[in-house]
Amino acid sequence: MSAVSSANMNNTVTKSTEMKNKEVSKITKKDCAELVAENQARALVYNLLSTLFAKEVTEDFVTQLTSTQGQQLLHVLAFEPTLAPSIKVLSAKLAELNSKEALLTLAADFCGLFLVAGKSSVSPYAGQYITNVDNTGSSTKAPSNTQANDNNKSEQKQTFGELHQLMMAFLQHSEMQIHRDFPEPADHIAVMLAYLAHLSTSASTEVQLSFINNYLMTWLSDFTEQVKCYDPGGFYRAVAELTFEWIKLEVSD
Amino acid sequence: MKRRNFLKAILATSFTIASTASVLTPLSALAKVGAKNRDDWLTTGSHFGAFRMKRKNGVIDQVKPFELDKYPTDMINGIKGLVYNPSRIRYPMVRLDFLLKGHKSDTRQRGDFRFVRVTWDQALTLFKQSLDEIQTNYGPSGLHAGQTGWRATGQLHSCTSHMQRAVGMHGNFVKKIGDYSTGAGQTILPYVLGSTEVYAQGTSWPLILDNANTIILWANDPYKNLQVGWNAETHESFEYLAQLKEKIKQGKIRVISIDPVATKTQNYLGCEKIYVNPQTDVALMLAIAYELYSNNLHDKEFIKAYSLGFDRFVPYLTGAEDGIAKDVLWAEKITGVPSDVIKALAKTMVSGRTQLLMGWCIQRQQHGEQPYWMAAVLATMIGQIGLPGGGISYGHHYSSIGVPSSGAAAPGAFPRNLDEGQTPLFNNEDFKGASSTIPVARWVDAILEPGKVIDANGAKVTYPDIKMMVFSGNNPWSHHQDRNRMKQAFHKLECVVSIDINWTATCRFSDIVLPACTTMERNDIDIYGSYANRGVLAMQKMVEPLYDSLSDYEIFTRFAKILGKEKEYTRGMSEFDWLKKLYNDCKADNDGKFVMPEFEQFWQDGYVHFGDGEPWTRHADFREDPEINPLGTPSGMIEIHSRKIERYQYDDCKGHPIWMEKKERSHGGPGSDKHPIWMQSCHPNKRLHSQMCESQEYRQTYAIQNREPVYLNPEDAKHRGIKNGDVVRVFNDRGQLLAGAVVSNNFPKGVIRIEEGAWYGPVGNDGSVNGGTEIGALCSYGDPNTLTLDIGSSKLAQACSAYTCLVDYEKFTGKLPAVSSFNGPLEIGV
């Protein structure tokens, strides 16, 4: 992650805009331009991942990802050794998406994984994995629902819970809202990734790191494990792994 | 590569994602101001009670009982779980193979295969095309859209009305007659007492409490069953049950509960109890009748003045006809009730005023017509029908029956049928010789054996060749018997459509699944106080429909639009126009009798209260003058013997009530050597049938190891090495299920209870597949209809016989499968 500030880690999102302005003023113009470009790149990746989790892959999206720019993007992403394996699978799977039937099969994979609750599905909602959101904004892992084969997996929690409320508050502070064509709780992974895309170009590193550590790293590994376990086609396994590895890169830098 | 360079390289690819594709948008000007965060308590209602709700940031936060409900049930704690349920149907979905191959799809995949999300427009168009195909190829007998049930409350959005009006605008279809709760009772009683009795207002509780010396609760558990009602329930009956408890304590009223199990009511009232072997109630009633007759204790004058056919019944009773006197010794062997207890009971019944209050359980069994008929005979012999605190009732455990009616007119409902002059798109009434109406519980038979002719209520029913079914707010994969037959039947259906809130098993066995929203996500209107009609309740929308769900009104308005009949469907009125109309029509009907404010005032207040009703005695008018106020029977009298039924010449329902052995019966009856345990699948204590089973946190207040409880007799359980909290496998030749053991003295030897409405969640024998297609698959949660018998009660009612069911059980020692009942569709290994 491109370091901008060394301010304390407990800043809330409320202060983000103010913080950013203050910190940015300290650095040079060149740095600033580079920083903007880097953050745009990060936002792009977050948006790409968000889109993949938000809805089924469309013909247009396949076209876009298999275009020259799309291929170049995947090629570049594969420069990172930890991203390379999932990018390789993703590229291969994309190449197979050349018929309506293949897209429908992938749509069925998506539906079975993310649009229903069940034994072979994976909840896209953070609230199913993490609980006990306290006032300082940190969260802890829920005791169950963590093992891919957990017998209690069908005993999921109510949706639109604390995490949804918290994300709604974050969005409100950032003057963002969920698109009306996406009628999902705010703790949906696609919302969280899109929110990170937004933070990438608008908030301090601390705020971003704090969000990732508290609200993504706490459950993303469980989520990824479950997708790996239940995805029948392999496409979403690659998407989940790519997401997890990307986030890991973000916090490790 | 350095991180910075890596990021730069990403940007250099010039790959972009359109901002319109994002799930986030800048906050709209409207939202910036902040949507008015209503913190007032809105009003709504449900089968479980009327209540008020408060929201926090657009999410339902608190729920409290409606202030006029003094005895709310704790099921209110499950309401939030109905809305924010992980098993909500989030989007319209179509089974993948059906989407690809339509009516030629592999139907054996149902219950076990994959779905894809579609838009509402796609889903409804596909629905319409399927109806086109059925009407074109088979005509109306190919479509059954009449299997309807308990729905959610609300007069405007009532899902049955919407589905049947909309599908009816497309074409005609097969419908049902009767219901799973009272099929035998509501068929036999019109012959005997002239009305269904089960769905009729009964003698008011205050009169019963003032006049009865003895109350007989026969297979009746009002303290459990009055928690839920057909409309918004406000639980006034519980005040009377509290008074009854006090009167028992003071020795002013004797209450005798006749039941195989110790009911919730028995334990609450602290009343007397008589144990009877399951399914043998008719034998006990006959012995009481014999005792009254042989001791000349029956009311001969009443019998003569108000009934018909006693003389035809007596030779059977005494044994003059068949050589078997139905005396106390004869009954003792069958019923397990000691002869002296029967004698004393008979004497008690004719000492002072005796009110018989019958439950519905005993007619949900093979020959279920007989106990209801025989109970009416008994009441006739006692001679107190039409007197306050005397006679017989078949409904005091249901929907506030017995609470004095306000007498006010209730709001009407959105029309279920087409308006006069409207015709369906496929205006074809040719059912090809098949019946257009079939007994409710016989639809699976019809699918399996189309063209078969059966007897039903004096007529011949020819089973239609059903190719498509439409279910709305109806979950037959909970309430119908024998899952194996259902699986076979569903393989024969070309198309199944299900409109519901959650992924019920019925949805998983469907091809097109459409998400309806809950009552909390729409505006509606209802009465409260069920049969007593205490007032009109505003059902105010708490939150917008979740995900892509829609109200029933909206779903079928869109469907009607595809038919080109939107205007016809809605009569050009919006949801709110309809609410106002239903209210204003009700206001007009009550004009001069009950004061109702303008709609706007009503909506703001949340309700209009009609006040207390006047106490009333059932059949008092008939008793006063049977000539002027005859019953609705053929003779106008109570028919102890029915010439009409006798003429049907049924071997399983003759001219008067008789004792008949059952296909399966515990305690020494047929089949008890192999499966010695009788399974009672009564109405649940913490659900309305299958409604609210999905409310997870609330379910955890009664589930055992995530399973439905099975209530066991301590001695039987010990014999099988089972203790409280164990997982038990219950089985017979029809199926098997897992349930959580609750060992309780409330249950006698040879009896278990698993409440109906436990959601079906089959798992395959090898544990790796879902079991949706497997015959005999293990139900992972504990749906008792995995085990029940799918036969008609008799040739008369052809009603559900779920209570004729023998099983055995053992401690489950295998690897415990996860509960799959509350899942969406599962995939088979690909």
TrEMBL record, chain B:
GO molecular function annotation: electron transfer activity; molybdenum ion binding; molybdopterin cofactor binding; trimethylamine-N-oxide reductase (cytochrome c) activity
Posttranslational mods: Exported by the Tat system.
Domain of life: Bacteria
Cofactor: Mo-bis(molybdopterin guanine dinucleotide)
InterPro entries the record matches: Asp_de-COase-like_dom_sf, CT_DMSOR/BSOR/TMAOR, Molybdopterin_N, MoPterin_dinucl-bd_dom, Mopterin_OxRdtase, Mopterin_OxRdtase_prok_CS, Prok_Mopterin_Oxidored, TAT_signal
UniProt key word Oxidoreductase: yes
SUPFAM superfamilies the UniProt entry points to: ADC-like, Formate dehydrogenase/DMSO reductase, domains 1-3
Entry keyword set: Metal-binding, Molybdenum, Oxidoreductase, Periplasm, Signal
Location within or outside the cell: Periplasm
GO CC annotation, single: outer membrane-bounded periplasmic space
Residue span, Molybdopterin dinucleotide-binding domain: 678-805
GO BP, one annotated term: anaerobic respiration
Signal peptide: 1-31
Residues annotated as domain Molybdopterin oxidoreductase: 88-561
UniProt keyword Signal, yes or no: yes
Domain Molybdopterin oxidoreductase N-terminal per the UniProt entry, residue ranges: 44-84
EC number: 1.7.2.3
Cofactor: binding details: Binds 1 molybdenum-bis(molybdopterin guanine dinucleotide) (Mo-bis-MGD) cofactor per subunit.
Catalytic reaction(s) noted: trimethylamine + 2 Fe(III)-[cytochrome c] + H2O = trimethylamine N-oxide + 2 Fe(II)-[cytochrome c] + 3 H(+)
Listed Pfam families: Molybdopterin (PF00384), Molybdopterin_N (PF18364), Molydop_binding (PF01568)
NCBIfam families per the UniProt record, alphabetical: PRK15102.1, torA
Family: Belongs to the prokaryotic molybdopterin-containing oxidoreductase family.
UniProt function note: Reduces trimethylamine-N-oxide (TMAO) into trimethylamine; an anaerobic reaction coupled to energy-yielding reactions.
Name the UniProt record assigns to this protein: Trimethylamine-N-oxide reductase
Originating organism: Colwellia ponticola
Lineage: Bacteria, Pseudomonadati, Pseudomonadota, Gammaproteobacteria, Alteromonadales
